[in-house]
From TrEMBL:
All residue ranges annotated as the 4-oxalocrotonate tautomerase-like domain in the record: 2-57
Organism: Flagellimonas meridianipacifica
Gene3D superfamilies: Macrophage Migration Inhibitory Factor (3.30.429.10)
Active site: 2
Pfam family, one: Tautomerase
Protein name: Tautomerase
């Protein structure tokens, strides 16, 4: 039973985009690992930007502030 957890920042990921992620990742597991989609679980967590960091800095979400 595969369990995949996708974490993204909370920057307006739409319901349609989440649906496509779930379908796409499930299909990759079917194609690559021959997993049963009936037992494949995908969870998407939206993390507030202020709780996301990289390169030792808090993620701001804007290109201007990322520089």
């Amino acid at each position: 039973m595969p369990y995949i957890n996708i974490k993204v920042t909370d920057e307006g990921v739409t319901k349609t985009q989440k649906k496509e992620l779930i379908e796409g990742v499930t299909q990759v597991l079917v194609n690559v690992l021959d997993k049963d989609p009936q037992t494949t679980h995908i969870v998407i967590d939206e993390v507030p930007k202020e709780n996301w960091g990289y390169n030792g800095k808090q993620y701001t979400g804007t290109k201007k502030q990322q520089s």
